[in-house]
UniProtKB/TrEMBL annotation:
<feature type="transmembrane region" description="Helical">
    <location>
        <begin position="65"/>
        <end position="82"/>
    </location>
</feature>
<feature type="transmembrane region" description="Helical">
    <location>
        <begin position="7"/>
        <end position="26"/>
    </location>
</feature>
<feature type="transmembrane region" description="Helical">
    <location>
        <begin position="158"/>
        <end position="179"/>
    </location>
</feature>
<keyword id="KW-0472">Membrane</keyword>
<dbReference type="Pfam" id="PF05675">
    <property type="entry name" value="DUF817"/>
</dbReference>
<feature type="transmembrane region" description="Helical">
    <location>
        <begin position="186"/>
        <end position="207"/>
    </location>
</feature>
<feature type="transmembrane region" description="Helical">
    <location>
        <begin position="227"/>
        <end position="244"/>
    </location>
</feature>
<protein>
    <submittedName>
        <fullName>DUF817 domain-containing protein</fullName>
    </submittedName>
</protein>
<keyword id="KW-1133">Transmembrane helix</keyword>
<feature type="transmembrane region" description="Helical">
    <location>
        <begin position="102"/>
        <end position="121"/>
    </location>
</feature>
<dbReference type="InterPro" id="IPR008535">
    <property type="entry name" value="DUF817"/>
</dbReference>
<feature type="transmembrane region" description="Helical">
    <location>
        <begin position="133"/>
        <end position="152"/>
    </location>
</feature>
<feature type="transmembrane region" description="Helical">
    <location>
        <begin position="38"/>
        <end position="58"/>
    </location>
</feature>
<keyword id="KW-0812">Transmembrane</keyword>
């Protein structure tokens, strides 16, 4: 009985942490089936900017978190511009705010991932132990770069992913549900988030937010390989959020301990929760 209650609590916390993605998909659904006075992508851009400001005004997110989310927005937009140019996917319909075939609102789909991480960090009281920021950042950058370079060079996502797993082999994320404290390997959390992002991508293409070449005429499931790609891309979002959280005590001037514990030379992760 207690396990079922904990699972329900966990689910409720996850749902609340997904407020921004939920509102984003609500906007996608409404804009698909309701006639709008302006182009769909233009309306979605205005909607997402307003949503971001609303989250900041009602203090669901701090301005520092908004800045981190905006950073991931730019990272995602850069990837979108390249992928659309090489024909990996396309955005149907015209818009004033469409540049090189990419609507500016597209970056908010990546920003939604950053918003989820910031919300979950707070609501689950996340703590990360034995984190290696330098090596993790290097592999996150390599993952991002490989999304570009594999168009001309061999696709190195598998060796890069294996390298990231080695770097994160002793990194744990601790989280609270109700009165209990739990932990899981950070790499596992990346995989779980990547799986749900793959589901979200299927929903996004179904709502015609964008289409892969083989979905233009008839919609079908996005290839399962995209699940792995999203799991890898989550690492970039995590690095951006962790960069703030690791210095949280100093940045927020609260005198609180940082929520990301940097790994020393010799450290036992089993004693890292505090």
């Amino acid at each position: 009985m207690f396990a079922c209650l904990q699972f329900l609590r966990f689910g409720c916390l996850e749902l609340v942490s997904c407020l921004f993605p939920a509102f984003l998909f609500a906007g996608l659904a409404i804009s698909k089936y309701v006639d709008l006075p302006i182009a769909r992508y233009d309306a979605l851009l205005i909607y997402c900017i307003g949503l971001t400001l609303l989250f900041w005004v009602i203090r669901l997110e701090t301005w520092r978190e908004v800045a981190v989310i905006f950073g991931f927005h730019l990272v995602g937009l850069g990837l979108e511009l390249f992928k659309v140019r090489v024909g990996s996917w396309q955005y149907p319909g015209d818009a004033v705010t469409k540049i090189a075939g990419v609507p500016l609102f597209a970056g908010f789909m990546y920003a939604a991932v950053g918003s989820y991480l910031c919300q979950a960090w707070r609501r689950f009281d996340l703590r990360v132990s034995n984190y290696r920021p330098f090596l993790t950042t290097i592999f996150a950058v390599l993952i991002y770069a490989n999304f570009f370079t594999h168009q001309w060079l061999p696709d190195l996502r598998i060796p890069i992913a294996l390298g990231l797993l080695i770097v994160l082999r002793r990194t744990w994320v601790f989280f609270t549900v109700g009165i209990r404290r739990y932990r899981m390997p950070l790499a596992v959390s990346f995989a779980l988030i990547g799986f749900f992002l793959w589901i979200a991508e299927n929903a996004g293409t179904f709502l015609d937010a964008w289409n892969y070449p083989d979905q233009v005429n008839v919609w079908h499931l996005v290839h399962p390989a995209k699940f792995g790609a999203w799991s890898l891309l989550v690492s970039m979002s995590f690095v951006l959020v962790a960069s703030v959280k690791s210095l949280e005590g100093r940045l927020y001037h609260r005198g609180t301990a940082a929520t990301v514990e940097i790994a020393p030379q010799h450290h036992d992760a089993n004693h890292a929760d505090r």
